[in-house]
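Pinned message: reference record for Lipoyl synthase N-terminal domain-containing protein
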Amino acid sequence: MSRFFIRPKATISNRKPDWLKIQVRTGQNYKELKGMVRDGNLNTVCEEALCPNIYECWERRSATVMILGDVCTRSCSFCSVMTGKPVWDDPDEPHRTALAVKQM
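Predicted structure (C-alpha cells):
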C-alpha cells in the first residue's frame, strides 16, 4: 500500500531554524544495514513509521524489525505504520530475521 503525504508549501514563518536542522549521515553502516533489510525482505518499524531518526540508528547498526509483515495491531496516533490484523504468510521470516540480527 502506498502512502502519500501532502505538505503545505514552506513559508518563512513555518521553516525550521538552522540551529534545529541536522546533517543526515548515511555512512557505510547505514548502507550495509539497508542492504540487509532489503536482501532479507524484512520490515522495520523505522521505515514503516517513517521515523526521522532512522539514519542515526541505522548508522549505529540498530533497527527494530517487525514480525508478521508490515501491519501492526496497535493504532498509535503518532505513528505511520499500517494498522490491521497481521497475516502470517512467510514461514521463512524468522530465519531471515535471525540472520540479519546476527549480522548486525
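Pinned by admin. Summary line: The chain has one domain: 23-96.
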